[in-house]
Amino acid sequence: MPEPSCDIGLIGLAVMGRNLVLNMADHGYRVAVFNRTTSKVDEFVKGQPAETRIVGTHTVAQLCAELKRPRRIMLMVKAGEVVDQTIAQILPNLERGDILIDGGNSLFTDTNRRSQDLAQRGILFVGSGVSGGEEGARHGPSIMPGGNPEAWPHVKEILQSIAAKALDRSPCCEWIGRDGAGHYVKMVHNGIEYGDMQIIGEAYQLLRDGLGLAPDDLARVFGDWNKGELGSFLIEITAAIFAKRDTDGNPLIDKILDAAGQKGTGKWTAISALDLGMPLTLIGESVFARCLSALKDERTRASKILRGPQPPALPAAMKDEFIENVRRALYCAKIISYAQGYMLLRAIDVERKWNLNLGGIAMLWSGGCIIRSVFLGDIKQAFTRKPALENLLQDEFFAAALNKYQGSWRSALGRAIECGIPTPAMSTALAFYDGYRTERLPANLLQAQRDFFGAHTYERLDSPRGKFFHSNWTGQGGSVASSSYNA
Question: How much of the chain exceeds pLDDT 90, in percent?
């Protein structure tokens, strides 16, 4: 039997898997591939040049036999049960020290379990987020590996060689942390992606319905925005989308149904935020906005019954000022979204002790992935200036931007209210900003109410934190003090 010749194996030849294989082959690696539908293997390999580095296999056992030791196998299959089923198929063909890499969008708690269970069998498991879509997978994605740290030296060279380059020209691939850390960071990335897309959509509706801009005008506006501090992949493609014509010559954007889909990672981010007590309001609203959009037929019926305002037209002389106000509102909301995302990363790091490199994560996201932007370089600088930075809003750069732009932000949202244009993400971002900068919130009343109806106790401004009181609000019942009860 010939000696194994392949550097890595990959299972799952959907779009992302196929493009990752081609990327690996371009970088000099010999790749064995397998797909449950073996005709896809034959079709894929047949389409490659004669000197291809890609080896097709028809069974998991055959794929494993083609691999150099320690075997490295990447799974690009649907998250959930399919990952567990695929792992179960592979295990009989592995030896201690072999490595499995899950490159799908798995829930981080599943990755925690798999990493720990497989370690007991001597198998090194890596849960790796991969971002960048079809184009990124083919030419350089952002890769966020975590799991069993013993695996990293064996997969580092391959993963870093196929990754995109960050703003500082380092690979957009670095070890994140133990167990599910890589998939958690990818989940937060996707949550931020939800937020970015929602606030861009709200800016679009403000300019379309609040100002009457046509798609060609919108293409020019977003093209201009992409040259400045909003420069990013999502702004770039948004400009291209507005410029796209259908076969009849009319703008394609005006023919697309306004009902958004989702695959769950935004929802996972919001659920994790609730579990950790972090106010991830913008991402949460972005998930709910997609849910509301999905009620298309119901919204159509409601539009015939429920009335909105009849705002005056904006004077032509104010057109450019309004566009700039919307741009600034978009930038401010983007700052809030990332600040909240980083609050969540800091909270999970405290809980899981993953030792996340928050500035490094910004660099991982600065190339290859969907949320790549010049803005991420500013985040990296914030953590370079102060590695223990409590919140991005306290960084001098971001604080200055918010202080400068908040007037425009408020003006843009004032026009939205005047016109009856929904801006759930931009508005909740402003509410968060105002709440975060407010020293005294009305939660004192909330605590009094809780104590009144449920004796839940409260703390006092004139006593040390951690000392709790209960008042006899009605003159009936008791009055107690507590140092331990906090509900």
Answer: 92
